[in-house]
Amino acid sequence: MKKIVFALTALFASVGMMAQVRYNVTLKGPENGVKVYLHNYETGAVLDSAVVKNNTVAFRGECAEEIVASLEQLKPEKMSLLQFIVDGSKVAANLHEMTEGSALNLRFYEYQSAEKEMERDAMGLIGEYRQLYETNNGKVPEANMKDIEKRYEAIATQSKELNKRILDDNSDNMIPLAYLIHNANALGYEKVGEFLKTYKYADRASLNPLKKTLEAEACKLPGAKLIDFEMQNLEGKNVRLSDWVGKGNYVLVDFWASWCGPCRAEMPNVKADYEKYHPKGFEIVGVSLDNKREAWEKGVKDLGITWPQMSDVKGWQCEGAKLYNIRAIPATLLFAPDGTVVEYGLRGENLSKKLAEIYGEE
Fold first, then answer.
1. CB–CB of 69/105 below 8 Å?
2. Is the per-residue pLDDT at 342 higher than 70?
3. Of the residues 101, 116, 150, the one at which a domain ends
4. Are residues 141 and 181 located together in one domain of the fold?
5. Residue 12 domain-assigned (yes or no)
6. What is the dihedral angle through the alpha carbons of 202, 90, 37, 316, rounded to the nearest 10 degrees?
C-alpha cells in the first residue's frame, strides 16, 4: 500500500511540475485587418497570431511556464504594441493604457509608458534640431544648440534613473528580463553583472547570451589578461594577437574598417601617436572589420597605415571583435607590456595623453 501511495504522490507531483500557465490578453486600438503576433519576448518564438477585427485582437492559450511576452505587428510597419508577463492573470489594454492586469503587469506597463514618453521627447528634440538646421542654412544658433543639448541630457538622466529603478525594485520578479535581454548596454554592464548575482531569475536560459556578453566585457577591464585570437595578415599569413601583446611593450589594438567614417577621421591622430612613440617601443595592431579583402588592402594603402594588420574579413562577424564584445568602431584596447589591459576606448586626445603619461612626456 505504501508503494502505491508513493507512486501516486510522485505522479501528482510530476503533473504539477508540468502545469501550464494560461494567457488571456485583449488589445483594443490596432487598425482592422492588421495581423498581430504573440511572441515569447525572451526567445523571439511566435506563439500565436490573429487579424484585428472591430479594432480588437485577443489571444487565449497556455505556456509551459511564466514568460515575458509581446504583441507585435509587422505590417504596414513593424511595431511593438504591448509587453506583458504571462503569469496566469488576465490582461486588457488599449494603445494608450493597460486597463486590467496583475499588480506586476500594471507596474511593468508603467515602466513602458515612461519609456515611450521619453522616446517622444527625444524625437521631438530631433525634429526641433532639424527644423532649426533647415531654417538657418545648416547652422543651428549656438543658444538653441545649448538648449537642445541641455534638454537631451535631462532626458538621458531620466532614462538612467528609470533603468536603475527597474533593477533595484524588481529583483524578485520577471520584469527585468525584458530589459536585460535586449537593453543591457543601456542598463550598464557593470550594474547588470552585480544584479545577476542575486537576481531570482538569473538562471533563465534567455539570459545565457547576456552572460557571454558580460564575460566579453570583463575582458576589457583594466588588469584583464589577453584573450588571444588568430587571423590572417595582409600577406595571407596566420598571425595571433599574442605575437605582439605581452612581449614587453605597450600595444594598442585598434578595431577599425575601411568603410568606417569615424575610423578614417581618427586615423591621422593614431598615426601621429605611432610615429612619435613607436621608436620607444609602442606598437599598434589593426584588427579590420572589413568584409572584402580588397577594401581592407586599399584602406590601409590610402590611409598610409604602416603598423601590423590582421583580419578574418567577416565584417561585424569578426571573431576577434566578438571575443571583446566590440559593437561600435573605432574601438581600442591598450595592453601593458605584461599583456594585461590598461584601458579600453582610448581615442584622440585621451590616447595621446595616456601615451605621454606612459612614456614620461609633457
1. no
2. yes
3. 101
4. yes
5. no
6. -20
| Inside any domain, residue 6 | no
In the numeric block, the cell 514568460 is attached to: 67
Of 174, 193, 218, the residue at which a domain comes to its end is: 218
First CA to last CA distance, the chain: 89
CB contact at 8 A, 32 and 53: yes
Q: What tens digit of pLDDT does each residue of 113-124 get?
A: 999 999 999 999
Tens digits of residue pLDDT in 265-297: 999 999 999 999 999 999 999 999 999 999 999
- Residue 224 covered by a domain: no
Tens digit of each residue's pLDDT (9 = 90 or more) over 308-332: 999 999 999 999 999 999 989 999 9
The CA-atom distances, in angstroms, between 362 and each of 11, 240, 358, 359 are 77, 34, 11, 9
Judge whether 287 and 255 are in contact, CB under 8 Å.
Answer: yes
146-178 residue pLDDT tens: 999 899 999 989 998 998 999 999 999 999 999
User: Are 113 and 73 part of one and the same domain?
Assistant: no
The pairs formed by 235-238 with CB atoms below 8 angstroms and a separation of 24 or more are none
When divided into structural domains, the chain yields a total of: 3
Residues 248 and 134 in one domain: no
Determine contact, residues 24/90, Cβ cutoff 8 Å: yes
Backbone angles phi, psi at 231, to 5 degrees: -150, -175
Residue with cell 534638454: 151
223 occurs within a structural domain = no
Q: Which three-class secondary structure state does DSSP give residue 241?
A: helix
* Domain encompassing residue 151: 105-218
Residue with grid cell 528609470, as numbered in its chain: 162
Peptide bond into 30 cis (omega under 30): no
Residue type, 196: L
Lookup result for grid cell 527644423: 131
Note the pLDDT of residue 171. 94
Contacts of 307 (CB under 8 A, 6+ apart): 274, 278, 283, 284, 285, 286
pLDDT at 15: 42
Are 69 and 86 a contacting pair, CB within 8 Å? yes
